[in-house]
Amino acid sequence: MKRQPVESASIASIGYDAAVGTLEVEFRSGGVYHYYAVPREVHRAFLAADSHGRFFRTSIRDRYPCRRADQP
Known about the structure:
By secondary structure, the chain is α+β, with helices and mostly antiparallel strands. The protein has helices spanning 40-48, 52-59; strands at residues 3-5, 11-17, 22-27, 32-35, 66-68. Strand 1 (3-5) and strand 2 (11-17) form a beta hairpin. The protein is globular, with a radius of gyration of 11 Å. The model has no long low-confidence stretch (mean pLDDT 96).
């Protein structure tokens, strides 16, 4: 999945696979996580957010099932 770099203190890049609704978030700390069943509108709002970290905390984390990308 191709990720787009973003300006954020905590998030390095964001990717999205619209065919399956998977959001991929790369954190500056080095972890990459997949969030499942994320609507396209949420991805668009995430990219457009003034604060990607705040948007992630309020609208994505703990709202969608997730898994670290390097785990089965």
